[in-house]
Amino acid sequence: MALDLILRRGQLHERAAGAAASRDASGDASGERLHDQEAHWVDIGIDGNRIVAIAPHLDLTATHEIALQGRWVSPPLVESHIHLDSVLTAGEPRWNQSGTLFEGIEIWRERKQRLTQADVEARAIAALKLMAAQGVLFVRSHADVSEPSLTALKGLLAVREQVRDWLTLQVVAFPQDGVYGDAQTEAQMEEALRLGADVVGGIPHYELTREDGVRSLQRIFDLAQTYDRLIDIHCDEMDDEQSRFLEVVAALALRTGLGSRVTASHTTAFGSYNNAYALKLMGILPRANLNFIANPLINLTLQGRTDTYPKRRGLTRVKELWQHGLNVSLGHDCIQDPWYSLGTGNMLDVAQMAIHACQMTGLAEIEACYDMITVNGARTLHLGDTYGIAIGKPANLIVLDADSPYEALRRRATVTHVIAQGKLLVETHPPRSQWNPAMLPQPGNVCDT
Ligand code: FE2
Fold first, then answer.
1. What is the pLDDT of residue 39?
2. Cα(252)–Cα(221) distance, rounded to whole angstroms?
3. What is the DSSP letter of 208?
4. Among 268, 387, 288, which residue's Cα sits nearest to residue 333?
5. Fewer CB near the last or first residue (10 Å), C or N of the chain?
6. CA of 175 to the centre of ligand 1 (A)
7. In 3D, which of 321, 317, 316, 319 has the Cα closest to residue 333?
8. What local confidence, expressed as pLDDT, does residue 101 receive?
């Protein structure tokens, strides 16, 4: 019997099955080194939309075979935090001159007045194609539900169906202007959940008062329990060290038992908390078992805008959260929109920025940053057994022009093949430079200095 597809001689590590390797957070790899001799080359057999065989050599045939020559085979990349309703709108109607979160919200308030569902769908699909071509097959997107028409949400729910054969999209009902910023928003959030939003969102630090912020969180947890949905809060995305809604989220996660179903996104104020308070918080967070999402590309540029020098990085404590065993993943947050005019959809860019900005340059730390764009994101999205490379799992995987996560991140390697639900979705050839031989040094003419 011939299979549908065999990938020949790819390098696969057992962490690819879907769980992060056990690591000593001091920087020493306690598990296997991913790029040493223990990594091995295998053939991967796919039939229909499932992985049916993994072995050093499969004595089988297939309709389609791909020779990998030792390239790294990885579970797909996971984009755990993006706003697809606003992607690809940078400069519309004007550029964000101050570079702040709050000017971004003002510009978006203007832009969304002329939002249509077709507009949302076209830009979201363009962005998803950009990401999928670079290995992203699982995405969580926020959808602004602060407009009575719920145009953004309806557009993204439609996109979720349009792409479901090749990409899994989760949609968050996100009240961009606050749950209590407008009298209608609370009801609109509930309507968004009835329409099928996967996750309940929030933005407590943008509510009018601290009390409104706490009340909004209580309402979000109520909604999540009523509708059996996950929670993902934009939490303390500012430099104010008095912005302390993370402790409220943690307390609610503990008391409700929702724990790992709850995610705190951004938490940039955590980078500004004094160490005495941060120490207290770090004692609570593992018990609460929250997920964290950091967005290093954008928060490095949005935050610290009121600082002179020294200027804060405006990031949450990624390294310390990871050292405390908390699940941390990474996202773009934005691609070419009022908050962030750059972005390419390449998750390796995001992880590389985390390596630099969070000073995670040890080998185990670099590998942990790769986990943050793969298996950790999968945990945040609650993908369960559907994620990872193992016999019987859905055949979603990517191939990189590298032999390890370290090399993939160092070189921001090309994702050469994207396999989605058993089918080749995208193939990309790595760039190759061609030297003019007449310009190369001749033997004997090279001077060592
Ligand atoms: Fe966000």
1. 55
2. 7
3. S
4. 268
5. C
6. 11
7. 316
8. 84
Question: Tell me, what's the pLDDT at 444?
Answer: 61
Residue 175's alpha-carbon distances to 11, 121, 195, 200, in angstroms, are 43, 19, 15, 9
Alpha-carbon gap, residue 365 to 361, rounded angstroms: 6
List the catalytic residues.
Answer: 237
On average, the pLDDT of the chain sits at 93
How much distance in Å is there from the Cα of 333 to the middle of ligand 1?
A: 5
In angstroms, the Cα distances linking 300 to 35, 80, 241 are 30, 18, 16
Residues 6+ apart with CB under 8 A from 393: 18, 50, 51, 385, 386, 387
- Tell me if 49 sits within 8 A of 37, measured CB to CB: no
Range from 12-16, 76-80, 363-367, 373-377 carrying the lowest mean pLDDT: 12-16
Please tell me the predicted confidence (pLDDT) of residue 27. Answer: 40
CA of 339 to the centre of ligand 1 (A): 10
Residues 184, 148 contacting (CB under 8 angstroms): yes
Give residue 184 CA to ligand 1 midpoint distance, Å: 22
> Average pLDDT in the 147-157 region?
97
Cα 58 to averaged position of ligand 1 atoms, centre (Å): 44
Counting residues of the chain whose pLDDT is more than 90, the rounded percentage is 89
Model confidence pLDDT, tens digit, residues 364-376: 999 999 999 999 9
Task: Quote the tokens at residue 334.
Answer: 């934005």
DSSP states of 131-160 as a string? Answer: HHTTTEEEEEEEEE--STT-HHHHHHHHHH
Ligand 1 mean position, distance from CA 310 (Å): 26
Contact 397, 46 (CB under 8 A): no
Helix (H, G, I), strand (E, B) or coil at 373: coil
For the segment 414-443, what is each residue's pLDDT rounded down to a tens digit?
A: 999 999 999 999 999 999 999 999 998 876
Concatenated DSSP letters for 272-340?
TS-HHHHHHHHHHHHHHT-EEEE-HHHHHHHTTTT--SSPP-----HHHHHHTT-EEEE--B-SSSSS-
CA dist 407 and 254 (Å) reads 39
Element (H, E) at 432: none
Tokens representing residue 432 in the block: 């190759």
Ligand 1 centre distance from Cα of residue 192 (Å) = 18
